[in-house]
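Reviewers of the previous submission asked for a worked example of the structure-prediction workflow described in the proposal, so we include one complete record here. The input consisted solely of the amino acid sequence. No template or homolog information was supplied to the procedure at any stage.
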Amino acid sequence: MDVFDAIKNRRSVRAFEKRAIPEVIVDKIIEAARLAPSAGNIQPWEFVVVQDPQIKHKLSVAALNQTFIETAPVNIVVCADEARSKRRYGSRGETLYCIQDTAAATQNLLLAAHALGLGGCWVGSFQEKMVRKAINTPSHVRPVAIVAIGYTSMHPNPRDRRSKVDIIHKETF
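From that input alone, the workflow returned the following structure tokens.
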């Protein structure tokens, strides 16, 4: 699949078939995320692959009862190792770069899932302490996103986007 087609046609999907995702496909998705750019090539990401129904339920509750998380065959919790970024870049690495880096990894993950015929949804609205507890993160590792992934049982329509005229500024704002 052409990268521009993937970018244009990917949608947030919240309805999944009950079909399992082969491990080789999950590995390809993680590989795409692993290849994302990062500040100073620090690669502060950690990926927790969740398929256990009890843990998926805890994630769903932590994500303000977004029940589609439970119905997705796989959830990948993308985490940022704040200490890893802090060692090189201080507080800016800890509070910004590791978040930017994991966001880039999350986008790669979503595009790879789409290219492989899967749907996914990036969930950022959750109670962080509950997610930490559900996946047992060390104190220096911060959950940044929950990505629900599966074979789609619905195909959302495109949503409106701001026009280029409204968002492009030449030389200065």
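The chain has one domain: 16-154. We consider this example representative of the routine output the project will generate in years two and three.
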